[in-house]
Design brief:
The protein has 228 residues and is α/β, with parallel strands linked by helices. It is built from 8 helices and 8 strands. Iron/sulfur cluster binds next to loops.
Protein backbone atom coordinates (compact mmCIF):
# COMPACT_ATOMS: atom_id res chain seq x y z
CA UNK A 1 0.00 0.00 0.00
CA UNK A 2 2.71 2.55 0.97
CA UNK A 3 4.80 3.27 -2.09
CA UNK A 4 6.85 6.27 -1.00
CA UNK A 5 7.87 8.08 2.18
CA UNK A 6 9.03 11.67 2.54
CA UNK A 7 10.72 12.40 5.85
CA UNK A 8 9.90 16.08 6.27
CA UNK A 9 7.40 18.50 4.83
CA UNK A 10 6.59 21.99 6.02
CA UNK A 11 3.72 22.51 3.59
CA UNK A 12 1.47 19.43 3.64
CA UNK A 13 -0.01 19.61 7.17
CA UNK A 14 -1.09 23.04 8.50
CA UNK A 15 0.90 24.04 11.60
CA UNK A 16 2.82 20.75 11.71
CA UNK A 17 6.20 19.52 10.53
CA UNK A 18 5.18 16.26 8.96
CA UNK A 19 6.37 13.15 7.23
CA UNK A 20 4.34 12.10 4.20
CA UNK A 21 3.25 8.59 3.16
CA UNK A 22 2.16 8.05 -0.44
CA UNK A 23 -0.17 5.16 -1.19
CA UNK A 24 -0.51 3.50 -4.59
CA UNK A 25 -3.70 3.35 -6.64
CA UNK A 26 -6.68 5.62 -7.16
CA UNK A 27 -10.39 5.17 -7.88
CA UNK A 28 -10.57 8.29 -10.07
CA UNK A 29 -8.91 9.30 -13.32
CA UNK A 30 -8.66 13.07 -13.28
CA UNK A 31 -7.11 14.21 -16.57
CA UNK A 32 -5.12 16.92 -14.81
CA UNK A 33 -3.60 14.52 -12.25
CA UNK A 34 0.18 14.78 -12.00
CA UNK A 35 0.58 11.72 -9.77
CA UNK A 36 0.74 9.35 -12.71
CA UNK A 37 3.18 6.96 -11.03
CA UNK A 38 0.82 6.47 -8.08
CA UNK A 39 -2.34 6.21 -10.18
CA UNK A 40 -1.43 4.01 -13.14
CA UNK A 41 -1.44 0.36 -11.96
CA UNK A 42 1.26 -0.67 -14.43
CA UNK A 43 3.62 1.81 -12.75
CA UNK A 44 2.80 1.59 -9.05
CA UNK A 45 2.49 -2.21 -9.11
CA UNK A 46 6.20 -2.27 -10.01
CA UNK A 47 7.06 -0.12 -6.99
CA UNK A 48 7.95 -1.97 -3.82
CA UNK A 49 5.67 -1.67 -0.81
CA UNK A 50 7.22 -0.01 2.22
CA UNK A 51 6.22 -2.01 5.32
CA UNK A 52 4.21 -0.03 7.86
CA UNK A 53 6.58 -1.25 10.58
CA UNK A 54 9.46 0.55 8.84
CA UNK A 55 7.40 3.72 8.66
CA UNK A 56 6.39 3.50 12.31
CA UNK A 57 9.97 3.00 13.49
CA UNK A 58 11.08 5.95 11.36
CA UNK A 59 8.33 8.09 12.91
CA UNK A 60 9.39 6.98 16.41
CA UNK A 61 13.01 7.81 15.62
CA UNK A 62 12.16 11.30 14.36
CA UNK A 63 9.34 12.14 16.74
CA UNK A 64 11.20 14.98 18.46
CA UNK A 65 11.46 16.72 15.13
CA UNK A 66 8.29 15.88 13.22
CA UNK A 67 4.88 16.47 14.79
CA UNK A 68 2.59 15.03 12.13
CA UNK A 69 2.13 12.41 9.46
CA UNK A 70 0.23 12.95 6.19
CA UNK A 71 -1.33 10.02 4.32
CA UNK A 72 -1.81 10.89 0.68
CA UNK A 73 -1.92 9.16 -2.67
CA UNK A 74 -3.12 8.16 -5.12
CA UNK A 75 -6.18 7.68 -2.96
CA UNK A 76 -5.50 6.21 0.49
CA UNK A 77 -9.11 5.16 1.23
CA UNK A 78 -9.19 2.53 -1.54
CA UNK A 79 -7.08 0.40 0.81
CA UNK A 80 -9.95 0.15 3.30
CA UNK A 81 -8.97 -2.18 6.15
CA UNK A 82 -5.28 -1.96 5.34
CA UNK A 83 -5.46 1.82 5.65
CA UNK A 84 -7.33 1.54 8.95
CA UNK A 85 -4.75 -0.91 10.34
CA UNK A 86 -1.93 1.37 9.20
CA UNK A 87 -3.53 4.39 10.83
CA UNK A 88 -3.99 2.45 14.09
CA UNK A 89 -0.27 1.66 14.14
CA UNK A 90 0.70 5.25 13.38
CA UNK A 91 -1.80 6.48 15.96
CA UNK A 92 0.06 4.48 18.59
CA UNK A 93 3.08 6.76 18.06
CA UNK A 94 0.88 9.65 19.29
CA UNK A 95 1.80 11.79 16.30
CA UNK A 96 -0.90 13.90 14.61
CA UNK A 97 -2.38 12.44 11.43
CA UNK A 98 -3.75 14.12 8.32
CA UNK A 99 -5.64 12.23 5.63
CA UNK A 100 -5.91 13.48 2.04
CA UNK A 101 -8.91 12.08 0.19
CA UNK A 102 -11.03 12.55 -2.91
CA UNK A 103 -14.09 11.63 -0.83
CA UNK A 104 -15.36 8.81 -3.04
CA UNK A 105 -15.45 6.28 -0.19
CA UNK A 106 -17.43 7.90 2.62
CA UNK A 107 -17.60 4.74 4.75
CA UNK A 108 -13.82 4.52 5.05
CA UNK A 109 -13.58 8.19 6.01
CA UNK A 110 -16.37 7.69 8.57
CA UNK A 111 -14.47 4.80 10.14
CA UNK A 112 -11.28 6.89 10.34
CA UNK A 113 -13.25 9.56 12.16
CA UNK A 114 -15.22 7.26 14.45
CA UNK A 115 -12.05 5.46 15.57
CA UNK A 116 -10.33 8.81 16.11
CA UNK A 117 -7.55 7.86 13.70
CA UNK A 118 -7.17 11.27 12.05
CA UNK A 119 -6.80 14.85 13.29
CA UNK A 120 -7.19 16.68 10.01
CA UNK A 121 -8.77 15.84 6.66
CA UNK A 122 -8.12 17.51 3.31
CA UNK A 123 -11.02 16.79 0.96
CA UNK A 124 -10.59 17.47 -2.74
CA UNK A 125 -13.41 19.03 -4.73
CA UNK A 126 -12.43 18.74 -8.35
CA UNK A 127 -15.25 20.16 -10.43
CA UNK A 128 -18.97 20.85 -10.45
CA UNK A 129 -21.30 17.89 -9.80
CA UNK A 130 -22.12 16.96 -13.40
CA UNK A 131 -18.42 16.57 -14.29
CA UNK A 132 -17.64 13.91 -11.66
CA UNK A 133 -18.71 10.95 -13.84
CA UNK A 134 -16.08 12.03 -16.40
CA UNK A 135 -13.46 11.22 -13.78
CA UNK A 136 -15.20 7.98 -12.80
CA UNK A 137 -16.53 9.60 -9.64
CA UNK A 138 -19.76 10.42 -7.83
CA UNK A 139 -20.74 13.81 -6.45
CA UNK A 140 -23.18 12.08 -4.09
CA UNK A 141 -20.31 10.19 -2.45
CA UNK A 142 -18.34 13.40 -2.15
CA UNK A 143 -21.29 15.08 -0.45
CA UNK A 144 -21.73 12.16 1.94
CA UNK A 145 -18.06 12.39 2.89
CA UNK A 146 -18.24 16.16 3.34
CA UNK A 147 -21.32 15.88 5.55
CA UNK A 148 -19.62 13.23 7.70
CA UNK A 149 -16.52 15.40 8.11
CA UNK A 150 -18.52 18.54 8.87
CA UNK A 151 -20.81 16.78 11.36
CA UNK A 152 -17.86 15.23 13.19
CA UNK A 153 -16.33 18.57 14.16
CA UNK A 154 -12.89 17.40 12.99
CA UNK A 155 -10.49 19.98 11.58
CA UNK A 156 -10.63 19.97 7.78
CA UNK A 157 -10.11 21.85 4.57
CA UNK A 158 -11.59 21.65 1.12
CA UNK A 159 -8.99 21.73 -1.64
CA UNK A 160 -9.88 22.99 -5.08
CA UNK A 161 -7.22 22.83 -7.76
CA UNK A 162 -7.91 25.68 -10.17
CA UNK A 163 -7.78 23.77 -13.45
CA UNK A 164 -9.18 26.37 -15.89
CA UNK A 165 -11.17 23.70 -17.80
CA UNK A 166 -13.13 22.70 -14.69
CA UNK A 167 -12.93 25.64 -12.32
CA UNK A 168 -14.30 28.93 -13.61
CA UNK A 169 -16.09 31.71 -11.73
CA UNK A 170 -19.41 30.13 -12.80
CA UNK A 171 -18.55 26.57 -11.77
CA UNK A 172 -17.06 27.82 -8.52
CA UNK A 173 -20.36 29.50 -7.64
CA UNK A 174 -22.13 26.21 -8.36
CA UNK A 175 -19.68 24.31 -6.19
CA UNK A 176 -19.92 26.89 -3.42
CA UNK A 177 -23.72 26.63 -3.34
CA UNK A 178 -23.49 22.83 -3.04
CA UNK A 179 -20.79 22.63 -0.37
CA UNK A 180 -21.66 25.62 1.86
CA UNK A 181 -21.07 26.30 4.69
CA UNK A 182 -17.47 25.13 4.94
CA UNK A 183 -14.60 26.00 7.23
CA UNK A 184 -11.48 26.40 5.13
CA UNK A 185 -11.11 26.29 1.36
CA UNK A 186 -7.67 26.20 -0.23
CA UNK A 187 -7.61 27.14 -3.90
CA UNK A 188 -4.53 25.57 -5.38
CA UNK A 189 -2.66 26.63 -8.48
CA UNK A 190 -2.84 24.09 -11.31
CA UNK A 191 0.53 22.79 -12.47
CA UNK A 192 0.28 21.18 -15.90
CA UNK A 193 3.21 18.83 -15.61
CA UNK A 194 3.28 15.11 -16.41
CA UNK A 195 -0.52 15.00 -16.44
CA UNK A 196 -2.55 11.81 -16.91
CA UNK A 197 -4.08 13.32 -20.02
CA UNK A 198 -1.10 14.77 -21.92
CA UNK A 199 -3.12 17.61 -23.53
CA UNK A 200 -3.58 19.12 -20.05
CA UNK A 201 0.12 19.99 -20.06
CA UNK A 202 -0.74 22.69 -22.61
CA UNK A 203 -3.19 24.41 -20.29
CA UNK A 204 -1.85 27.56 -18.68
CA UNK A 205 -2.64 28.08 -15.00
CA UNK A 206 -4.63 31.09 -13.87
CA UNK A 207 -2.48 34.19 -13.26
CA UNK A 208 -2.42 35.54 -9.66
CA UNK A 209 -5.15 38.15 -10.23
CA UNK A 210 -7.57 35.47 -11.53
CA UNK A 211 -6.72 33.24 -8.56
CA UNK A 212 -7.59 36.16 -6.29
CA UNK A 213 -10.97 36.55 -8.03
CA UNK A 214 -11.69 32.84 -7.51
CA UNK A 215 -10.80 33.19 -3.84
CA UNK A 216 -13.17 36.16 -3.51
CA UNK A 217 -16.03 34.06 -4.91
CA UNK A 218 -15.33 31.32 -2.39
CA UNK A 219 -15.33 33.79 0.49
CA UNK A 220 -19.14 33.77 0.24
CA UNK A 221 -19.23 30.10 1.12
CA UNK A 222 -16.27 29.48 3.45
CA UNK A 223 -15.07 30.92 6.76
CA UNK A 224 -11.51 31.08 5.48
CA UNK A 225 -10.08 30.98 1.94
CA UNK A 226 -6.43 30.39 1.15
CA UNK A 227 -4.57 30.56 -2.14
CA UNK A 228 -1.75 28.06 -2.61
S1 LIG B 1 -5.85 13.90 -8.93
FE1 LIG B 1 -6.05 12.65 -7.07
S2 LIG B 1 -8.06 11.70 -7.27
FE2 LIG B 1 -7.53 12.44 -9.30
S3 LIG B 1 -6.55 10.70 -10.32
FE3 LIG B 1 -4.92 11.90 -9.36
S4 LIG B 1 -4.59 10.97 -7.36
FE4 LIG B 1 -6.59 10.26 -8.12
Amino acid sequence: MIKAFKGTSLVDFPDEIACVLFTGGCNLRCPHCYNKSLVEPEIHSQMEDIPVEAVVSEIERRKGFITGCVITGGEPTIHGKELINTLRKIRATEIKIKLDTNGMLPDVVKQCISENLVDYIALDVKASPEVYPQFGGSWENLEETLNAIRDSGINYEIRITAVPVFITPTTLELIGERIKPVKTVAIQKFVGRNTLEPSFEEIAPYPPDEMKKLAEIMEKYAEKVLIR
